Amino acid sequence: MSPRFEEIDWRPTPMGDISLRRRRDPLTGQEVYEVKLGDEFLMSSLFTAGETELARLGLAALPDGGAGSGTGTGAGLDVAVGGLGLGYTARTVLEDPRVRSLVVVDALPDVIRWHEEKLVPLGEALVSDRRCRLVRGDFFALAAGTEGLDPRRPGRRLHAILLDVDHSPRHVLHPSHAPFYEEAGLRALSGHLHPGGVFALWSNDPPDEDFTAVLARVFATAEAHVVRFDNPYQPGAAANTVYVAGKAAGA
Question: I want to staple 51 with a disulfide (CB 3.0 to 4.6 A). Which of 88, 93, 94, 126 is the partner?
Fold first, then answer.
């Protein structure tokens, strides 16, 4: 039996100390992996519904074969994920048989190392999938630039970009992220998408009408989905928000 609590790794980073912990949950008895940055919990394997629905809702908004591919079914989807975490969004992307390639961008090299060294449950599945590459980089700086989100293929457009880094557009991990959620930042991001491509965003806060309106000014469609899930530590269901915005087919 595993110990009740173990700190698997701890490192200082420019955004605060990051740690990977494993514990046995006293209510369910299951093994839980958690990521903390400073005093804040970033991710728990006990609550993954929002992360998986980010991928499912984002990819569900694309037609078969990939928006803008021009070759129909079988052309394949090229996808980018901002924020690796424990890998649940990336794994769900790879479960879609239409996906041809996935690049996962994370600013913290230790998070990538946890997967490469198989210190987290999904590490082996992600690093062994030939379609998937884990890339160290600042998602927000790459999104604001002109070279795109895949350093190996500068200028390449993507069919879907899925983002799970900040707690919400109003609750960011670092002040430098804030401009991304404004109209100019989102317009720069849309330039990295194929016509008809999709941007999807996870948020820990309820739907934000003002942010949805900003999305609607940049994209052809914008919708906020509420994702509910059980939380054994509180009565009633907990909820996340997934925003899904679609670029115009002719853009």
Answer: 88
Domain carrying residue 182: 47-246
Question: Residue 66: which residues within 8 A CB-CB, separation 6 or more?
Answer: 75, 76, 77, 78, 98, 100, 159, 194
Q: Is residue 7 part of a domain?
A: no
What pLDDT score was predicted for residue 236?
74
Instruction: Tell whether 251 is covered by a domain.
Output: no
The domain spanning residue 154 has which CATH number?
3.40.50.150
Q: What are the tens digits of pLDDT across the range 47-65?
A: 899 999 999 999 999 976 4
- CB-based contacts of 159, cutoff 8 Å, min separation 6: 62, 66, 67, 68, 69, 77, 78, 79, 193, 194, 197, 198
For the chain, 251 residues long, the average pLDDT of each consecutive 10-residue run is: 77 86 80 86 87 97 60 70 96 97 95 96 96 97 95 93 96 95 98 97 97 98 94 79 95 69
Q: Tell whether 18 is covered by a domain.
A: no
Q: How many domains does the chain have?
A: 1
Inter-residue contact 131 to 99 (CB < 8 Å): yes
How far is residue 207's CA from residue 224's CA, in Å, rounded to a whole number?
A: 6
Question: 0.85 cut: is pTM over it?
Answer: yes
Is residue 166 domain-resident?
A: yes
